[in-house]
């Protein structure tokens, strides 16, 4: 592979840096901030950044001079081993000397005009200025680049151990891993990387290399240590070292960290379709995964269609629906029917085309409903993308998926795939902050009457039951005897709460429902034991 020469610097399309992307004569581009590389397929990231491993490579001579624009003194450069010299092309360059523990020169990192980097003999190089400091002590600061290390050393009187990475944020973990024994000789290791995204990400990754409690991460009000120095923020730079916070992995917090969240008022969530269900559960909360299961033809689609209509027209929510096995025009007729109290999807002569059009326009003018017309595309990868778009771009607060099992029916290992999908669904609901409703088919019960004849729904009946019971916050079963001789009995349904993770209060509760043939709506019946609002002085309900 032939070498190429640096031409110019410019913005990086990957990380957004304004001047870290270097263009070379062969057309390839390499970003020294995030490591993004584009160009000829046989060209690895810039040879000028790679180590030249030839044992005969000639090191560049230079003098210790002040770096005026950087606010660095000649004394600092001499202490840390940073010189100014001339390369083989006659250009003035800055030279960062890398020495082994005995002080022997083993590599040089060359910085030319406009951030043009090259290297000599840098294979297996130690940290910059590592040879200057003892192998143990109170504290060592690790910066992302040599200039930042010079800056920290200078403001701390050239008395605090400071080193830097040989290859920036992109090679941070590898570089620190190689020197972990030396770094662990210090009671504290303070990572002071750049405050951009690559720097923060690298700091979090590197902090995990150390003995728990030893590593701290410094926060700066500016981009890096040298910018702090050149802007006169010397005291703030020193304070940032003292105030560096001990690294804790994501998800581990103290009560003090979440105090404000704990003290926030507890509020009733978004109402359910039926008041007694809301009273028993305190409503639906954003971030919840809510499952509904029922036998074939029992009425689960009718139930969630009415829930959708209520969310839109009565609660004013933006709703996204993905009905994977129901034609979009059928969904539209059913929604308009719920609004008008007409069964527009049944050609029984009880409604007119004008009534359908008027009702449809009323629902549509709310501009709060978005439907997915699947065209047969029902893989989870596709559905996941549509849901994210509905929530993040369209602002949907409530999502309905009918049905879950359609996503994995074609998979070789349906159970395993369903577990993975449910985990992603629960994570999406939480991170994107919306209510995620889904319908699931049920397996045939091993004992008792089938679900179509009014058999009781149990959690174990859900297809993928173990994963559904684990990930769902609320789980509901809808029961109805569709084969009863008595027409009145066929109109009666029971909504059963199988899981209430939030309070446990609704677990096992049942709610009677009646289907109104005239309006096509489900109507809540009277419970034997009315649900009372839970008071603060009541005993715990579980």
Can you characterise this structure?
It is a single chain. With 542 residues, this protein is α/β, with parallel strands linked by helices. It folds into 3 domains: 50 residues, N-terminal domain of TfIIb, CATH 2.20.25.10; 199 residues, Dna Topoisomerase Vi A Subunit, Chain: A, domain 2 (3-Layer(aba) Sandwich); 184 residues, P-loop containing nucleotide triphosphate hydrolases (Rossmann fold). It has 16 helices and 23 strands. The strands form 4 sheets. Strands 17-16-18-19-15-20-21-22-23 form a 9-stranded mixed sheet, with helices on both faces. Strands 5-6-7-8-9 form a 5-stranded antiparallel sheet. The chain has a 5-stranded mixed sheet with strand order 11-10-12-13-14. Strand 10, helix 2 and strand 11 form a beta-alpha-beta unit. Helix 14 packs parallel to helix 15. It is elongated, with a radius of gyration of 33 Å. The termini are far apart.
How is this fold's topology laid out?
Blueprint: E1 6-10, E2 21-24, E3 29-31, E4 37-38, E5 62-63, H1 74-80, E6 82-86, E7 92-99, E8 105-111, E9 117-120, E10 137-143, H2 146-155, E11 162-164, H3 172-178, H4 180-183, E12 186-192, H5 197-207, E13 215-217, H6 225-230, H7 234-242, E14 245-246, H8 259-263, H9 275-281, E15 289-294, H10 300-313, E16 319-323, H11 328-340, H12 353-364, E17 369-371, H13 380-393, E18 398-402, H14 414-432, E19 435-440, H15 465-471, E20 474-479, H16 487-490, E21 492-500, E22 510-516, E23 521-524
Parallel strand pairs: 10-11, 10-12, 12-13, 15-19, 15-20, 16-17, 16-18, 18-19
Antiparallel strand pairs: 1-2, 2-3, 3-4, 5-6, 6-7, 7-8, 8-9, 13-14, 20-21, 21-22, 22-23
Helix pairs in contact: 3-5, 10-11, 11-12, 13-14, 14-15
